[in-house]
Amino acid sequence: MRILVINPNSTASMTVQIGESARRAAFPGTVIETVNPRDTPASIEGHADEALAVPAMLDLIRAGEARGFDAHVIACFDDPGLAAAREVARGPVIGICQAGVQVASTIASRFSIVTTLPRSVPIIEDLVAGYGATGRCRNVRAVNMPVLALEQEPETCELRLLHEIRAAREQDGAEAVLLGCAGMSDMCERLQALTGMPVIDGVSAAVKLAEGLVGGRYLTSKIGAYDFPRVKFPQAAG
């Protein structure tokens, strides 16, 4: 099967790192291709960034469908444009927040999320509520560092992540922690080893969910909300 992993921001180095994480998670024989738009924000840190990124992301998904990809993964924890993406695709479209929440809810009765900036906390809280997991999510924490700092100051980010993961266990009663940014995916295994608790990367979770849906021959429903967008013609002047 072929899965297209889309980083909606325009930072190519982050796309490379996301691709490495996705390929480590994939089964042998699964082809993972990664791509990002060129003219979207360098990182997605709020609703305005999301809105600016979505049109180019939808174009990449349409192109991926035309090229025969079986599924698409949106590699941004805000799950930007997820419902719109499902409208334009017949194959499954997976957001890494939703996938991570589903995995966390399956392997632990309570979990916390650790993200980048405090401004992302309410956005993620709303997503968790929309996915029906508020009762299981004990807390959304932030390391108070911007997304691009994950590449620029990786050691500092990892230390802050370690602190928040341990606090999630001790203070929140969390049994697992979900990393709240695609740019954290390459730290997942080290953080799990250092903390001794399950640490979930949404990129890997989304790839495994996509593989399962494609293997089960499940397609996006085109009845109702996720039907293809209606074609509209401009009205004649006069």
UniProtKB/TrEMBL annotation:
It holds the Pfam family Asp_Glu_race. InterPro entries: Asp/Glu/hydantoin_racemase, Hydantoin_racemase-like, Iso_Racemase_Enz_sf. Belongs to the HyuE racemase family. This is Asp/Glu/hydantoin racemase. It comes from Gemmobacter nanjingensis.
